[in-house]
Amino acid sequence: MLQKIFIQHGTGSTFGALFEKNAGFARATTIAMASATFGIIVGSLIGGPIARRLITKNNLKLNRIILESK
């Protein structure tokens, strides 16, 4: 999860700087950072309940073989 956060913010930082330099779009890096943070937070808030509902609806269980191998 932490790696995904760095990728999203790193991409936003890179493209933000490009937009500021090449297109003259003021504060593009700030907007990109805010958008990346918003996406991570909203994705976590929405993704958890959706995953729980799908697991319950489809009656999914953990595989014991996977648990025993760890």
Describe this structure as you would to a colleague.
- The protein has helices at 2-23, 28-57, 64-69.
- With 70 residues, it is mainly α.
- The protein has one domain.
- Helix 1 runs antiparallel to helix 2 (28-57).
- The longest helix is centred in the middle third of the chain and has 30 residues, at 28-57.
- The radius of gyration is 19 Å and the shape is elongated.
- The two termini are 20 Å apart.
- The mean pLDDT is 83.
List the topology elements:
Layout: H1 2-23, H2 28-57, H3 64-69
Q: What is the number of E strands? A: 0
Structural class: mainly alpha
Oligomer type? single chain
Number of domains: 1
Biggest sheet, open or closed, and with what strands and sense? Answer: none
Number of DSSP helical runs: 3
- Taking pLDDT < 50 over at least 5 consecutive residues as the criterion, the unreliable ranges are none
Q: Give the % helix.
A: over 70%
**How far apart are the termini?**
20 Å
Shape: elongated
List the helices and strands in order.
Answer: HHH
On the 0-100 scale, what is the average pLDDT? 83
- Radius of gyration, CA atoms, in whole angstroms: 19 Å
Estimate the strand proportion. Answer: under 5%
